[in-house]
From TrEMBL:
Name of the molecule in the record: NHL repeat containing protein
Organism superkingdom: Bacteria
InterPro entries: 6-blade_b-propeller_TolB-like, TRIM-NHL_E3_ligases
Organism: Spirosoma montaniterrae
Amino acid sequence: MTTTTLSYLTPSLPDAPPLVHDSRVFRGSAGRPLLAPRGVWAVGGRLIVADTGQNRVFIWNHIPDTEFTEPDVVLGQTDAAETGRNAGGGAGASTLQYPSGLWSDGERLVVADAWNHRVLVWHRFPTQTGQQADVVLGQPDFSHNEPNIRGIGAGPTERSLNWPYGVTSDGQRLWIADTGNRRILYYDTLPVDSYAPATAVIGKDSFTERDYESEQPIWPYSVRLGPGGQLAVADTQYYRTLLWHDWQTAPHQQADVVLGQPDFDSNGQNQYGLFPARHTQSWTYDAYFHGEGLLVADTGNSRLLWFANVPTQHNPPADNLIGHARFDTGSENANTRFGTDRQLYWPFSICTDAERLFIADTGNHRIVISHFTH
């Protein structure tokens, strides 16, 4: 197989040094390529992809260097060709239904199994296709998969989940974006037992609270940790990213900074503008700390925003972007009218590993792999 480069992927503003170079496309298995992948993670030379539309997680033990490469391990299915929800049956320790967020330190793996309303943990990194998870969170056992355990309309608890799309860890603690319950759950240790209760909740006054205010996460899709102890939450439905300067304060206070809106009460898509701008966001699904700065997956605008330093004030303008040559270009503008194969189209998830950037380019059903220029 050959390597498909993205020589026309816009790496930055035209009057700024390019943020990335040597961008290329990876589409997964040749026999059954990726379909709407919403999660990507790279660690220790491995690549992990949540092939969300086909209810699988793929693992490559080495970063692929061609457009198609067969996976070394398939989770959620019996092989790479199978795609059914929960492998065509009921929920179990080896099944998945709409997996999304991923985290791994190379020794353990955590998967947000969103439509099973649970998070799965492998305490030993999976080496076998169909390998069963060791721990389930959000459900009393591996066979249950209703929202908040008891089904639609049931209230949340410290043990329940409802559409959890995002996960992150620092290797010791665990955070889950419990999206459907409009909150983030925090565990002071990475659980070793199933059905473990969360230690604290971010975005609510208690574990059973369902009402919400505009200063709280409205639809938290991803949660990320910064090198300085910051916490970032992509708050999709309010077209914004929330930042806490210190993750330890997050259960006790509203975010310190809001990106994409002028204040906590505002919720306009691109701040009610016809076109995006350098300080606006639309359907924001991820954020990722890199070096001294922050990347934001401004998904609805089909671009990544780059903040050279982690913002400390509301409504900051981005310093640069990937995916468009101008800040006022979005998903529905003229340069996407005839196709998006040389551009980003609805990127849902981003991660970095040393000098490389990995983008789940969801609308194009692929992973984009680039090298940073700095």
